[in-house]
């Protein structure tokens, strides 16, 4: 089992920045790809960014490229999402996910609200 706890969400003005954290417990994340998803009211949950288990491969949704950065620490227990130049359309609940060939785990989500 992997337990994921997100933090760092909040209210920010357009153009501002936030840094989300996802702390894992239960086992090392070394064998898991990590991803951030987001879900706005009335919309589906969409992937925002993903980093491979090794950290060498990262992918971003087109809507956040150049503004968001996903990273993971060397101990493989925490994943971050640095969000810059935030826009009102970035408003959503952000979820952390750990993915292996066998299992997918989710955190409880953290609210990000960007005011115009």
Provide a concise account of the structure shown.
The chain is mostly beta strands and 116 residues long.
Explain what you see:
The protein is mainly beta and 116 residues long. It contains no helices and eleven strands. The protein has strands at 3-7, 10-13, 18-25, 33-39, 46-51, 58-60, 68-72, 78-83, 92-99, 104-106, 110-115. Strands 2, 4, 5, 6, 9, 10 and 11 form a seven-stranded mixed β-sheet that branches. Strands 1-3-8-7 form a four-stranded antiparallel β-sheet, with no helix packed on it. Strand 7 (68-72) and strand 8 (78-83) form a beta hairpin. It is globular, with a radius of gyration of 13 Å. The termini are far apart.
Number of helices: 0
Order of H and E elements = EEEEEEEEEEE
The Cα radius of gyration reads 13 Å
Mean pLDDT, nearest integer?
A: 94
Helix percentage: under 10%
Q: How many strand segments?
A: 11
Low-confidence stretches: none
Main sheet properties: 7 strands, mixed
Summary keywords:
116 residues, mainly beta, 11 strands, 0% helix, globular
Q: How are the SSEs placed, and which strands pair?
A:
Blueprint: E1 3-7, E2 10-13, E3 18-25, E4 33-39, E5 46-51, E6 58-60, E7 68-72, E8 78-83, E9 92-99, E10 104-106, E11 110-115
Parallel strand pairs: 2-11
Antiparallel strand pairs: 1-3, 3-8, 4-5, 4-9, 5-6, 7-8, 9-10, 9-11
